[in-house]
Amino acid sequence: MEVEKGKGTNVSDIQGEDDLDEEPGEEIESAPPLKVGEERELGNTGIKKKLLKDGIHWETPEFGDEVTVHFVGTLLNGAKFCSTRDNGEPMTFKLGEGQVAKGLDHGITTMKKGERVLFTLPPDFGYGAVGRDGVPPDSIIQFEVELLSWITVVDIYKDGGIIKKIMEKGERNERPSDLDEVLVKYQVTLVDGTIVAKPPEEGYEFYVKDGHLCSALTKAIVTMRRGEKVKLIVQPKYAFGEKGKDATDGFPSIPPNSVLNIELELVSFKPVIDVTGDSKVFKKILKEGEGALVANEGAAVTISYTARLEDGTVFEKKGVDGGQPLEFITDEEQVIPGLDRAAATMKKGERALLTITPEYGFGSVVAERDLAVVPPSSNLIYEVEMLDFVKEKAPWELNSKEKIEAAGKKKEEGNILFKNGNYQRAGKKYDKAVDYVSEDGLFQDDEKKLMKALRISCWLNGAACSLKLSDFQGAIQLCSKVLDFESHNVKALYRRAQAYMETSDLLSAEFDIKKALEADPQNREVKLLQKTLGQLQVESNKRDAKLFTNMFARMSKDSSVPIKKLKVEKAEHGKSEEVTAAETECMGEPSTPSEDRMAVDQS
What we know:
Elements: H1 11-16, E1 39-41, E2 48-53, E3 66-75, E4 80-83, E5 91-94, H2 102-108, E6 116-121, E7 141-155, E8 162-168, E9 181-189, E10 195-197, E11 204-207, H3 215-221, E12 229-234, E13 260-270, E14 272-274, E15 281-287, E16 300-309, E17 314-318, E18 326-329, H4 337-343, E19 351-356, E20 367-368, E21 373-374, E22 380-390, H5 400-419, H6 423-436, H7 445-468, H8 472-485, H9 490-502, H10 506-519, H11 524-558, E23 565-570, E24 575-580, H12 581-587, H13 595-602
Antiparallel strand pairs: 1-2, 2-6, 3-4, 3-5, 3-7, 6-7, 7-8, 8-12, 9-10, 9-11, 9-13, 12-13, 14-15, 15-19, 16-17, 16-18, 16-22, 19-22, 20-21, 23-24
Helix pairs in contact: 5-6, 5-7, 6-7, 7-8, 7-9, 8-9, 9-10, 9-11, 10-11
């Protein structure tokens, strides 16, 4: 049944009108739910809503959605002026497009599916001063409304190019990303209903980043949830544009500038994660794991896997076909880096497919494994299942004595790694040790002293690692932490001075060296560093002098005075002679240096 618009409404009108503001201190969304028989005004609009029957779930439609409703419109005296109940046909329309009275548009956005209410609309939100058939001007009217269902409508790019109608909502909140592999089913038709594309019955699987069919398909997929079914209306620029598409796979061609209707279902997707952040180790999740915890660094993990080359050659199996699974500690270089890093991201029971480039595999060397030889610079594929893991205890899970013991152990592990030249991993061990002995918590005085000593020792050792790795800013930061506690710590001053010298901050380096010698005047290493600093300062001064000399030479050349010819009388010859202005300037007070020349001389 068609309902006269009367004083209609647009989405922009409703969203921008002051008279729809909520009352001070009240938000419609946060108001307590209405009880059956209860009536309430919606904000300060004058629209009243009385609940006749409660709905289900908690979602409500939004402007732009397609709603299907039954309603009966009456005056306050009970006179009926419109009804969908008379012929039993509900009305479907899009909210916010002025197809019904403004107040009805606004009221329906507060309703749940199956809800039945009575709306009382003031004239401004009804048919106003104009009225309509059966409604006198400036009448207060009522609508009894039942919200049967609605379809969420989304303008994906806000340009009308891809309109998505959600026919069936999906599961959970996860949506696929560009890296993920998706399985979809779809049917593409022209406006006249001609089917122009459809995958096999089982659907089609592809990586989102690789695209499929037309751009609209992938653009819509990344907005969908697993199991979601939608209808798309696609304009030519997101379909096949001016070129159209030739007939393929038994389907007819798509004419140029065709609008497409696509029924699309996201059957499932396999998340793909860039484990290392540089696109060199990818993890595709084949089976979700349990819970939310992942193995993380330092965990004792048990995994099974089959490892292959790109050509399918299996070179290693663990925990497969009756074999023993592999047990190792993550972040301890007990396996190749790619497998190590990926395992630290896995949940218990998770099964994943890893793609590992040579940098995180066996590198440029030949690797002899159990079942085959891995050639140099090979890409690797591991199908891995996380059977179990035991996470390393976090600091908050330990008492003070256990924290001190754990920190001491990490420090010793770091020392061994440092001696072996593995400065990167040594630095991480020192960082972990410091985590265990932070200042948080209640400790005895003797424990506090021991923790402070451990922190300072690990910061100093970490600074030594940073120097070895040419991370000079990192070394400066760690030494500064030590000096915040012990302002004359010679090691911290010495190492920070080294870092300052490497960053050409010679003044700061000189300050730290002087301070270190005040604390330990006979320290041989500091004296040697002071000597090196002196050499650097001499070289720096020479460079500066050369730089300034060249700079002023260029300035003198570039700013030469335009020559003006002057006539100077030479009395002895009785005739005039041309002399340049430059010559004349040189004649005047030649012994007085200019201010700029003095500055250069002083430098």
